């Protein structure tokens, strides 16, 4: 039915668009829903977050996803069932947010849905000859579109891979368009389950823009806080603050080949898992460790690998500001350690006008805005930032 194509075309030509960006990250804490008003495109994008909410997941939802999440062996049926189920759940959550915000679905031009990553397998990690970089996000876009009546773009990472990337980090595009600042070198550090950063040069040269994952953010802290303390996360780093760092364990934790790989690189909880820590405990001969010392050491592990990645990526002597976002920015032990290791104050992205918890959802709104109304932006020949349009279109009818 061409009416849908015509509507999309009309949307692409509007002076501004209302786009709902969705992110459901590796922490499985909930669905981030950012209702944005976007104007312009590329480096001329102006975006206002009109509403933002994290809709928390019910425990049943989390455990259903955890059954297949980041695992090599799963019940295949569970994966297949979850694909439409997550799409429908996300659609329902969007409708609830819209009702709460008193906005009719007809007032929204697009939904930009990341989906739920269930397995991330860059070539450097799976190492299987002849197979490319691979990643899988589920929560089908057609189900979101039909449930909400809103044209939906989804599955953004496949094009990035098709164009030579690892499917992540995608934040770099939104970071460059929204947060570049003349005469200030910026590092935009996001600490979700996994941590990543974008370097934005103060001379605004797109070919110098750089992005990479650094390793764990909160994923290991969360996993062991759940295991030993029965809580979802180490609120305000209070458990870490009460523990002592175990240097031998810390050394063993840092021995992954991931840290030896050149930039840019990506990873996930497939590598940084409970088994990864158990192996490091064994390697370091620490079969018995106080749980709070373990959390303190895991927090330090994230802080050191994040700061070392930033240091190694930046030419020595280069002055830069670091702006943090993601749930880890709420952890003062993590933030404090990174600040001390980099010998500078770590600022919050909120200073730049976007709430840190909303940043990744906003990013997908930016990517959808680019797909429907952007021009090609050239980021140079380096790997990791192909200048391609991302997102697959689902029509509501
Ligand atoms: N007050 C707090 N104190 C300590 N940690 C916190 C706090 N609030 C949130 N977090 C951490 O942030 C995590 C959620 O972060 P976020 O929502 O940015 O991750 P995500 O988007 O799921 O992950 P990713 O970006 O890797 O996909 C929680 O699981 C928790 O570890
Ligand atoms: C495969 C995948 O889902 N990766 C996520 C994850 O969470 C953080 C980090 O690892 C990042 O690379 C990415 O998400 C953000 C939104 C990104 O692509 O920029």
From TrEMBL:
Pathway linked to the protein: Amino-sugar metabolism; 1,6-anhydro-N-acetylmuramate degradation; Cell wall biogenesis; peptidoglycan recycling
Keyword field contains Repeat: no
Any one GO biological process: 1,6-anhydro-N-acetyl-beta-muramic acid catabolic process
Keywords carried by this UniProt record: ATP-binding, Carbohydrate metabolism, Kinase, Nucleotide-binding, Transferase
Catalytically driven reaction(s): 1,6-anhydro-N-acetyl-beta-muramate + ATP + H2O = N-acetyl-D-muramate 6-phosphate + ADP + H(+)
Membership in a protein family: Belongs to the anhydro-N-acetylmuramic acid kinase family.
The protein's name in its UniProt record: Anhydro-N-acetylmuramic acid kinase
Species name: Dyadobacter jiangsuensis
Organism ancestry: Bacteria, Pseudomonadati, Bacteroidota, Cytophagia, Cytophagales
